[in-house]
Amino acid sequence: MTEAQAPINAPARHTFDISIVGAGIIGLALARELSARWPKASILLLEQNDGVGQETSSRNSEVIHAGLYYPPGSLKARLCVRGNALLYSYCARHDIPHRRIGKLIVAQQGEELSLDQLQASALACGVDSLTRLSAQDLTRLEPQVRASAALWSPDTGIVDSHALMQNLQYEAEKNGVLCATRSRFMRAECRGPGIFDIDIDADSDHNNDVKDIFCIRSRMLINCAGLSAGRVAASISGIDQQLIPEMHLVKGNYFSLSGRSPFRHLIYPVPDARQRGLGIHTTLDLAGQCRFGPDIEPVSSISYRVHETRRSAFADAIKTYYPALDETRLQPAYAGIRPRLSPAFADFMIQDEYVHGCPGLIQLFGIESPGLTASLALAELVTLKLQDQAPL
Asked: Does any domain span residue 95?
């Protein structure tokens, strides 16, 4: 597959039916879904980085979530459950590497009630595949894990997120989508229903003080810029700026385990009681490499460095369920930054014309985990919201 590496080269005020800002997993899923539903539409996908999916979408656990953790009725719950089925089906049809590896949520002495609550909540979300396990059952599955009880989730899996994004981009471009990398959204003005004038910095080197600005017009505008969604929203005139939510940057660090993995499945502790995250858990990549994370580190700027000083805190957390851990085998791996709407649980936020009063504009905020799993379902939902403005 050939990726559009050159900056956008379009005449001033070239017109598109749909402009999508942000070519992470959500932008790519949207480009593929919209171009398939509306094959006559002209669609522009803008990405400020050198390639697609270089931020949150490629710096995560690559887990296909089953939909266990989110309040019943929330967008996260609904879209994760729907997205789980869509993603497994999509990966199977397109030979995208993935495995339905299964997950164990383990409870220590005194935490068993959390498993009951989690199972009841998951059932209310439509997830009826969870099985309660005793300590003996758990030992048979994972001899190295120590816990008093566990939940088994057979529908949790892992996926090659890079291969997934490459295939979504290939399909979108095959359908006629123009994917313009190194093209930064600068500003937009909503001049009326279906009229967005957009300025784009199409300079291939954003460190250059000289800007190469192109101006386009679009009937629809979708802001799914992830970490930059707040900046993009603030650059759209004609929209009430008070509707832009406060964004929090949360860094998640990962450590890998050198040598052979002691586990065959994903291992998660019970969720953080303060609803800040899922705890430092064990994941496996498709090659069988074991890694731990993410932790939760609020940050004010973006840096992907993983500091050795976090090793001890990781080891303490891991030893609660894997007491045989050799701490010297822990190696800094990678980090990701996710956009969060509040320090604790916050649902996905999708703002359409019923919120901001501007037909044709969709803004997505706080698309963190389970955004990868929910991506195809999110694309379905946004497409439905734009149905009234569908190109002929």
From this structure: no
Residue found by looking up tokens 């993995």 in the block: 261
Residue 228 has φ and ψ, to the nearest 5°, of -100, 10
Closest to 337 (Cα-Cα) out of 296, 371, 384:
296
Q: Does 170 lie in the same domain as 217?
A: yes
Do 253 and 239 share a domain, yes or no?
no
Token reading at 242: 């008070």
Q: Which of 63, 105, 78, 23 is nearest to 252 (CA)?
A: 63
* 142 vs 152: CA distance, rounded Å: 12
For 162-194, write each residue's pLDDT tens digit: 999 999 999 999 999 999 999 999 999 988 888
347: alpha, beta or left? (left if phi > 0; alpha if psi -120 to 50): beta
CATH of residue 230's domain is 3.50.50.60
| Secondary structure string (H, E, C) spanning 267-317 | EEECCCCCCCCCCCEEEECCCCCEEEECCCEEECCCCCCCCHHHHHHHHHH
pLDDT tens, residue by residue, 241-283: 999 999 999 999 999 999 999 999 999 999 876 656 788 999 9
Structure tokens at 292: 């731990």
Identify the residue whose tokens are 């460190």.
207
Range of the domain at 134: 103-154+248-340
Q: Estimate the crossing angle of helix 75-93 against helix 371-385, to 10 degrees.
A: 100
- 8 Å CB contact between 229 and 339: yes
Tokens of 349: 């936020």
Retrieve residue 16's tokens.
């598109």
191 and 328: one domain? no
| CA dist., res. 392 & res. 385, Å (int) | 16
